[in-house]
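User: Just a sanity check before I run the rest of the batch. Below are the structure tokens for the first item. I only need the designed sequence back.
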């Protein structure tokens, strides 16, 4: 493939889908629309049954007024039946809405998790793990609460006011006009409240996130805090954020309380009944209003006030759910590393690797992390990537399993561009041992089996032996079934590293990338880890990212990077003869090995310290 074509493809891969737009909450819950139809149906029937009790009561009063006592029992039975039916249907609506909410939560979390797994490392760093976890946990939980507790109210909010107003007009259109005037006044006032509350809700969310960030920072940095400032400056940042949050909430609640008090007065049934009793008495006095219609109107108008209260609750809920919905959509449309279709994928001829003019920048406006890096790795050989910090070693290594794609150039395995391979095919070829030895909460065996869940206990033990881990596992209380704790906290750094190596041994991939695999090992563990790595590298195509040059003296090829550029390439002995960057790094390593505290003191003071 030509380089300009590769560049165009890389740009396309970093572009979000065309024609995307921000959906509302109703578009987001489309996966459960069939279930929601049953929720709406049960809720609507429950509302109709509930409102029918007022209608039946009005007819009961009419029968009593006309001395038709013989039929009163039927009306009472009908009222009880409507009440029971309304209650049962309401329970069914909320039961079904909660089931639908759990279903939606499961769908969205799986969808977002799968999407996050296809994000580049640069995108993940830019978004931040805190924001991504908030979407997966908090925002989807908020959406769950909305679907479970609010959606069953929508039929009631839509049906009850219309049904009630129609019934009021049928009873007496003159009194109905009084009620309509009151409702219009409430709606206009509610619109004003909603406009003020929308902006306040956004500010409230930002203030709350600031407090949460301060709390997390204070707790996570506790060792540093105790060492340097005793918590004074760090705690003051948290306290200032909390003070700003408290001041805003207090001011907001005072405003909300004043609005709420006015609404409670307008929506209070007594407020409406006062006008209806006065005007109804006039109509009843002149004989234009029958008693049963007047009583029925008073009862139904009280119900109408109750039908408006859920509307207020829903208005507030819709405002609160708007931001979580927006974030879910935003993260679900982050640009991913695109995958070729399975029917168009290619298979590599062998396990040789070629980096061809690879360039990459984490930020479009920033400095390039890699620039026109080209070299090849023959099958079955070991290549070491070395260079100063920030040279681009880990960035380059992370491109092989497609944690991120180059902006320009191509990476090929067996002559095939890795972008022309499916992720599944690539993962079956490339194994990776990370610098950060991350373990999941579970047993040691579970962590070794991470990429091979069907592996037998014998295979797990064999992998652990090769990784020099079996000897420290067996004395543990439960052996291979011993829990490692969150992030492997119950194990030492060297033990965690050997578990991750055992995991890679069990995967048995023909290509292996080792990213600073001994970076955090102490001298005792380093020997065991080095032996495990040598066993793991046998008969594989290996790329090693290393700071400790002593580990790479016998590799087949050393690639020296500096500031994203390939400076030197060759064997250890040949690079030493060139007297270049690698030579200077080796000299620095040699001097560092002979360093001691005593010698450093003598060099600076000219006197040997007394003991």
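Assistant: Here's the designed sequence for the first item:
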């Amino acid at each position: 493939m030509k380089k300009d074509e590769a560049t165009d493809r890389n740009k396309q891969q970093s572009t979000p889908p065309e024609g995307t737009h921000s959906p509302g909450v109703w578009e987001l819950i489309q996966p459960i629309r069939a279930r929601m139809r049953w929720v709406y149906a049960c809720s609507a029937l429950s509302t109709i049954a509930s409102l029918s009790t007022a209608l039946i009561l009005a007819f009961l009063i009419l029968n009593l007024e006309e001395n038709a006592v013989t039929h009163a029992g039927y009306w009472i039975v009908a009222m009880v039946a409507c009440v029971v039916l309304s209650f049962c249907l309401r329970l069914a609506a909320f039961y079904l809405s909660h089931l639908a909410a759990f279903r939606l939560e499961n769908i969205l979390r799986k969808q977002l998790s799968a999407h996050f797994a296809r994000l580049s490392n640069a995108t993940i760093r830019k978004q931040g793990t805190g924001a991504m976890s908030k979407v997966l946990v908090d925002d989807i939980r908020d959406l769950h609460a909305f679907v479970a507790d609010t959606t069953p109210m929508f039929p009631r909010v839509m049906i009850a006011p219309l049904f009630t107003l129609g019934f009021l007009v049928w009873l007496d259109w003159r009194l109905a006009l009084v009620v309509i005037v009151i409702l219009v006044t409430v709606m206009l006032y509610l619109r004003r409240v909603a406009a003020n509350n929308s902006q306040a809700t956004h500010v409230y969310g930002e203030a709350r996130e600031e407090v949460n960030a301060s709390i997390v920072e204070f707790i996570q940095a506790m060792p540093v805090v105790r060492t340097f400032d005793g918590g004074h400056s760090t705690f003051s940042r948290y306290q200032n954020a909390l003070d700003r949050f408290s001041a805003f909430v207090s001011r907001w609640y005072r405003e909300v309380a004043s609005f709420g008090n006015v609404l409670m007065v307008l929506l209070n049934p007594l407020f409406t009944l006062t006008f209806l009793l006065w005007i109804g008495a006039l109509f009843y006095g002149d004989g234009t209003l029958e008693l049963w219609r007047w009583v029925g109107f008073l009862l139904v108008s009280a119900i109408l006030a109750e039908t408006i209260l859920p509307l207020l609750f829903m208005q507030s809920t819709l405002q609160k759910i708007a931001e979580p919905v927006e974030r879910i959509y935003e993260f679900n449309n982050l640009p991913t590393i695109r995958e070729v279709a399975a029917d168009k994928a290619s298979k590599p001829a062998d396990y040789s690797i070629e980096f061809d003019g690879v360039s990459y920048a984490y930020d479009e406006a920033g400095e390039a992390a890699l620039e026109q890096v080209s070299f090849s790795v023959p099958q079955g050989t070991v290549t070491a990537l070395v260079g100063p910090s920030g040279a681009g070693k880990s960035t380059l290594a992370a491109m092989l399993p497609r944690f991120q794609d180059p902006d320009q150039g191509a990476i090929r395995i067996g002559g095939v561009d890795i972008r022309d391979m499916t992720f599944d095919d690539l993962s079956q070829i490339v194994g990776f041992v990370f610098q950060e030895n991350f373990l999941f909460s579970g047993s040691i065996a579970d962590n070794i089996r991470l990429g091979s869940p069907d592996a037998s206990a014998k295979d797990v033990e064999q992998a652990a032996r090769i990784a020099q881990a079996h000897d420290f596992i067996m004395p543990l209380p439960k052996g291979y079934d011993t829990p490692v704790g969150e992030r492997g906290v119950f194990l030492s750094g060297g033990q965690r590293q050997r578990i991750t190596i055992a995991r890679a041994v069990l995967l048995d991939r023909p290509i292996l990338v080792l990213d600073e695999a001994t970076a955090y090992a102490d001298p005792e563990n380093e020997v065991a880890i080095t032996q495990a790595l040598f066993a793991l590298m046998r008969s594989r195509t290996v790329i090693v990212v290393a700071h400790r040059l002593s580990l790479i003296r016998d590799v087949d090829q050393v690639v020296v990077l500096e500031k994203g550029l390939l400076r030197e390439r060759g064997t250890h002995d040949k690079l030493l003869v060139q007297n270049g960057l690698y030579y200077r790094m080796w000299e620095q390593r040699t001097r560092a090995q002979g360093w001691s505290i005593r010698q450093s003191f003598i060099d600076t003071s000219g006197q040997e310290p007394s003991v």
